[in-house]
Design goal:
InterPro entries: Kinase-like_dom_sf. This protein is globular. The chain has eleven helices and six strands. The strands form two sheets. It has a four-stranded antiparallel sheet with strand order 1-2-4-3, sandwiched between helices. Strands 5-6 form a two-stranded antiparallel sheet. It starts with a helix and ends with a helix. The protein has two domains: 84 residues, Phosphorylase Kinase, domain 1 (2-Layer Sandwich), CATH 3.30.200.20; 151 residues, no CATH class. By secondary structure, it is an alpha+beta fold. Strand 3 and strand 4 form a beta hairpin.
């Protein structure tokens, strides 16, 4: 491990003094995600195997097969090193298509060291939340447009939330590739699920309401593959069957997740 890390001084611009600091962080901590400050800048360590797999994953797979809803299928369960390998493979896949990602500096077993990409889109949205609603919503629309461009390249993310995006030179970059939905469902279904998941955020976070919803959907649909648009129509048609029950439950208790589901699904069902 030490020799591999020392090689980073030339490949990644790390200074020799950074090697023992990074090595100590890799060996001494068990946190899932950790920021490590080095003399040449910060890096991030991501570890797999620090969290127990949820029983919901198996139940979700059974439910998806039972009701014939492929978009509900979870990504394949892998071991810790398999999850790390999946993330690195997905990073390489996105980079090969000129999509900004955090660069892999080093990996060892179930741990990966990434470059720092700065603030996530989520943090930048919070920065302008109360003082610039136009800039806030423009960023949401930009995310939808970039997701459409991602889909046009034959890719899908699996969890396109603002916390898993960043901005680089005016473009939206993506990180945290723990999901691989196109392994368990057709690509166009995975892409339709991507935009639905993003709209769970857009629908309730937009400060300017329906105007932003319209702009965000158009920004995605204008560049997304026609097959993904068609699958979104099927997805929202299926989920639309649960809206009445969701609204009924909401009369008793309208939690944030339920509200996102109702607003996003209702809107996309109307326009798709």
């Amino acid at each position: 491990m030490t020799n591999d890390l020392e090689n980073l001084t030339a490949e990644a611009g790390l200074k020799e003094a950074d090697v023992p600091v990074l090595l100590a962080a890799l060996l001494s901590s068990s946190r899932r995600v950790e920021r490590v400050a080095l003399s040449s800048g910060a890096v991030w360590i991501k570890r797999y195997g620090t969290e127990r797999a949820s029983r919901w994953v198996s139940l979700q797979r059974m439910l998806a097969n039972l009701i014939k809803a492929p978009f509900l299928r979870p990504s394949p369960l892998l071991g810790d090193e398999g999850m790390a390998a999946r993330e690195m493979r997905r990073v390489a896949q996105f980079s090969a298509q000129d999509v900004p990602t955090a660069r892999v500096l080093y990996s060892s077993g179930a741990a990966i060291v990434f470059t720092d990409v700065g603030d996530t889109v989520d943090r930048q949205l919070h920065h302008v939340l109360n003082n610039d609603p136009v800039a806030h919503d423009n960023m949401l629309v930009h995310c939808a447009a970039e997701l459409g461009r991602l889909h046009s390249k034959g890719l899908c993310h699996g969890r396109p939330y603002p916390r898993d995006m960043f901005l680089k030179d005016g473009r939206v970059g993506f990180m945290d590739f723990e999901e691989e939905p196109d392994r368990v469902m057709p690509l166009e279904v995975a892409q339709a699920r991507d935009i639905w998941l993003l709209f769970l955020q857009v629908a309730t976070r937009a400060k300017l309401g329906g105007k932003t919803h319209d702009r965000a959907y158009k920004a995605w649909a204008d560049v997304a593959p026609a097959a993904a648009v068609a699958e979104l129509r099927k997805l929202t048609g299926f989920l639309g069957g649960f809206l009445s029950a969701a609204r009924l439950i909401g009369r008793v208790h309208m939690g944030s997740d339920l509200r996102r589901f109702i607003v996003a699904t209702s809107y996309l069902k109307q326009v798709s």
